[in-house]
From TrEMBL:
Keywords annotated in UniProt: Acyltransferase, Membrane, Transferase
Biased composition (Basic and acidic residues): 744-759
Organism placement in taxonomy: Eukaryota, Metazoa, Ecdysozoa, Nematoda, Chromadorea
Phospholipid/glycerol acyltransferase domain ranges (all copies): 218-351
Organism, as annotated: Steinernema carpocapsae
Residue numbers spanned by region Disordered: 740-763
Family according to the record: Belongs to the GPAT/DAPAT family.
GO cellular component: mitochondrial membrane
Subcellular location: Membrane
InterPro entries: GPAT/DHAPAT, GPAT/DHAPAT_C, GPAT/DHAPAT_LPLAT, Plipid/glycerol_acylTrfase
GO BP: fatty acid metabolic process; glycerol-3-phosphate metabolic process; phospholipid biosynthetic process; triglyceride biosynthetic process
UniProt-recorded name of the protein: Phospholipid/glycerol acyltransferase domain-containing protein
Transferase as UniProt keyword: yes
MF GO annotations: glycerol-3-phosphate O-acyltransferase activity
Amino acid sequence: MTSYPPSNKPSPFRFHRPSLATAMGGGNPPVINLWRRTDLNFYHINVPKSSISCQECFGRPDSNASSPSVPESQQTRSLDKYVNVLDFPKHNGLAGLDRLASGHVEDKPFPWFADLRYTWRTPIPHRYLNVDRDVLSSIRVQQSVDDYMQLKKNICYKHAMEKAANCLKEMRASLNRLICRICGWGLFKVFRRVMKRLLICPNEMERLQEAEKTGIPIIYLPLHRSHLDYLMITWTVWHWNLRLPHIASGDNLNMFGFGWILRGVGSFFIRRRLDENDESGRDQLYRSVLKTYMTEILKMPTSLEFFLEGTRSRYGKTLLPKNGLISNIVEAATNGEIPDAYLVPVSYTYDQTVEGIFFDELQGNRKKRESILGTIKGVWNAFGIPERCGSVRVHFGPPRLLSDYMRTLSSAIQDSREHFDLTHAPHMNCYRELLPWHNERCQDPQRTLIRAIGYHVVHTAQNQTSISMCSLISALLLCKYRTSGAHISDLRADLEWLVTETISRGFDVIGWESGHTHQNEATTEALSHLSESVVLHGDHVFLKLVHKEVLNVSYQRNALIPPFSVTSAVALAFVSKSADVDGLVSRALQVCNLLQMEVIFCKPCENLRQKIADEVNQMVSDGLIELRTNPPLDGRGETEDLKVCNRDFIDVLHFYANILRPFLQTLLFVLDSLLDPSGQSMNNKMIKGSFPSACLDFPCFRQRICPPTPNDEEDLRTSDAIPHASRSIQLRLDQQLRETAQGEEDHCRERQNRVEQPRRRQNTPCLDCRSARRNLEELL
């Protein structure tokens, strides 16, 4: 690594500033009005959208050309701003894009019946055919029907086909243009009630229009934050005359009345769980019908939409992708059933989600099943707070062909297997070479490729997401000012610094225009969405140390994990123990290993070790840390260590480290609960009997994680990732149980006279858990 000279760059954090009252020459502290109007530019784009494309897989994008997957002869117009779709009826939709992009139309009154006239005039030009006959007559379904008859023995072909038809009737959509128009008009009213503005980039939509002209089906793969997500995609593409997608929804939403409406706008319902070990053949028949139904939809061709995460994120961060539905698409393309498909990552930015932060579930209570009464109550509560969601952005990534993903990722995965190594790994599956798409126990390369595609799409989606001012302020309040509070002038200066850092990492910030936006306006906008979680005392801002409000701010802060995940891992490694460059990189990799089920640090086509090394080099280049040579000791030669350049920069490193620190704290306390005081792990009976309640609902150790009184800035009440962290530990223990069970079977077969030995093996320490606990103690 290149050694850089120390820098005299001042600390980005500000200390001991005079109060606003002193600066203004008055004796009384200023009154901060959180509800006054702010003059922010919500339509400006700070980061060119072309920079989001993956250069490793698809080459360097040209900002003046369309996506490489779209014919180059078809160019998109240059309107590199966002527009508010809620104002479309004022200016006749797409015909008034230039006026909408100016951002000076919000105060213009709506003409009479503007929404109704716009809804009636906006066409739904495409046909949506019924594919029931094609599904039931397909070879795949017929083969599954035959297998089902062989398993049941006493069932005839007619009854078996009725089973298949019932499966199809249970899931299929019934897209109706009249219902779509009525819902399109109604959503104008709903969205204006729950959000200030709904921002879409016209360039992104024009790329989708060009992709649709090729005749290749489009698959929208959004991240999932709210029940508004799937409504917004269908509603948005309608304005640009794109095909309305068929939406994969959970059967929990198939409620009386509400399910009929969702079917009418394109939703088809699938079961949330299927038994992999089903011996009756019913689930296998259901899988065949589902796979064929999705294939026939794409062959029409009609767009498809499903959530790779599988469920709404309860933590404000991206969840690891599930690979069931996307494997059906890959199989259909591989078998030639569809020519190809465009994969479009979609993500959202909310100031606040309409449902809130899922407080009950984060407390350990089980999720309540959706019901009509609960839906009505949720809608009523959402309507009770006008513009609760604030400014909402929907981000449509560049459409890329599935065949391109398969071709480029196949070689990238092979290269990473050959050149990547984690020397500190406690076992061979540690971090699975890069991330969980590398599964050494999985011998099928097709499954590995499917996992890699899912992770690549999700990583692209999270990295194209804009960051809200609310998330930036939340990060500062939690990671720096949690206990001491912040002077408003310090908070404003730190916000401006953090905005600059976020934009420099390729992430846009909503409402910020470099060189024009004032930090006072940005701070006021952010605090207006956190009014229930902060206390304003004179010219100071304090975080309410109440569990619910800390979780609310934590949810917002987690939006900063994508831009700062690697930086936080390096900072955690640095503040825990000084080391040379190689030692720091290895220690940061150790952090990534421990958080492999929490954070996606890199794409499958990237090398994580190199990415961490680049981050260390960047810190040295920025003057945050420096490489110093130590004199020889005890006959050894000179050594080189990384040191902090400036004492004030220690606070910067701690700020970065605190972004991921709560997840490590949670893991440590979960491990403490799994290990007895002597350092030994639970036996099989204890794990099977106590683990689900102890780690998923965690009533047994809730007081340890949520102490009754506030602690220091390491307060574990901000550890909002307990259920997900428990899942990580559960996977490790499941593997340990399988290994123990296999060992017991081997010993029983070989030594029948030594029955007690397998029982003693159950109470031996779990080396994986103990090793992880030691690593966590060193890092924290």
